[in-house]
Amino acid sequence: MKLLSVTIPCFNSAAYMRRAIDSLLIGGADVEIIIVDDGSTDETFAIAKEYEEKHPTIVKAVHQQNGGHGEAVNTGLREASGIYFKVVDSDDWVQEKAYLEILSKLTEIVKSGESLDMLISNYVYEKMNEKKKHVVSYRMALPKNCIFTWDNVLHFRKGQYILMHSVIYRTELLKGCGLVLPKHTFYVDNLFVYQPLPFVKTMYYLDVNFYRYFIGRDDQSVNEANMMKRIDQQIFVTKSMLEAHNLFQLKNRKLRTYMKKYLEIMLAICSIYLIKIGDEESLAKKQELWDYLKAYDKRLYKKLSRTFLGVFSKAENKVGQETMKLGYEIARKLFKFN
Asked: Are the beta carbons of 93 and 20 closer than 8 angstroms?
């Protein structure tokens, strides 16, 4: 059995996927690299097969009809044989030293017989044309160098969330919790991280800058223009997250608080882009989203609509909406997220 399965979802990724694959090959025989070609029309699958032929005990090339990023992750999870599971997007890569430290730590934990559901590490925004890199770390939020539970979690700051870039899950946990990402939908990485959280009992935080998150291409899903164009998919993912769990049935208060904060930022993201689009239809969609939450879970609506972000996200007056736009631009400069 492999220690770690890494899935690389690819769609027309021929121009940049080699960097992702090469950075992962350094892990050697302990790692299984599953390259999922999601119906590409360029040389993506040929490149995947080339790597499979060169590294038959490490690389597996899988071709499927186009189903979107989420379906490529689903395929990778079905194919995975490793104890742990990681997703690395085809335009991203991992840092060698941090990668080897993570593999060493996972090996140590497996040999010890201890149970670990999720390993968390830092990620770095590799923003095009910017020399200074923004690092997202969890030093003030999580205990270091030990296995811990939700009871031991400290305080997450605004803008500090556990994202797909920072997490490695236990494979059987993902399979056992019923995670299936929707097809033909962007932004499902949020659902990938969020939906399994109540099943996570044990965690480990390794304070290394592991994942390099490339950002800056015009065709990326996180490009602002694309996010506004695909706002309906962002709303769909947010609603799917709202429906994934009844937070008030979760016994652990810290887990419940963290998941509420995650929903808060997802609602805020939808709201700010709908405000930025600014036409009547978009503002009506914003109102509908909050009305949906109110009808679906009145208690959660009360909690989220009274937070700082919630108040401005719901705002229907010009002052509130302009404040939301200004706050977004400040956050964008601070956190470098697109």
From this structure: yes
Spell out a b/e string for 251-264, using b for 16 or more CB atoms within 10 Å of the CB, else e: eeebbbbbbbbbbb
- Residue 268 is encoded by which pair of tokens? 């805020």
Nearest to 83 by CA among 165, 18, 150, 168: 168
Among 308, 316, 255, smallest CA distance to 290 is for: 316
**Residue 144 DSSP symbol:** -
Angle, vertex CA 207, rays to CA 161 and CA 99, nearest 5: 100
How far, in Å, CA of 164 to CA of 155, rounded? 20
Q: At 127, is the secondary structure helix, strand, or coil?
A: strand
Instruction: Enter the pTM of the model.
Output: 0.93
Q: Which two tokens stand for residue 229?
A: 């164009």
Q: Are 87 and 170 in contact (CB under 8 A)?
A: no
C-beta of residue 249 within 8 angstroms of C-beta of residue 175: no
| Ramachandran sector of residue 316 (left: φ over 0; alpha: ψ -120 to 50; beta: rest) | alpha
CA distance 129 to 100: 28
pLDDT tens-digit profile, the chain (338 residues): 999 999 999 999 999 999 999 999 999 999 999 999 999 999 999 999 999 999 999 999 999 999 999 999 999 999 999 999 999 999 999 999 999 999 999 999 999 999 999 999 999 999 877 778 889 999 999 999 999 999 999 988 877 899 999 999 999 999 999 999 999 999 999 999 999 999 999 999 999 999 999 987 777 777 778 888 999 999 999 999 999 999 999 999 999 999 999 999 999 899 989 988 989 999 999 999 999 999 999 999 999 988 867 776 776 666 566 666 666 665 555 545 55
Sign, Cα dihedral of 234, 237, 239, 241: negative
Tell me how far CA of residue 215 lies from CA of 14, 125, 127, 325, in angstroms: 17, 7, 5, 21
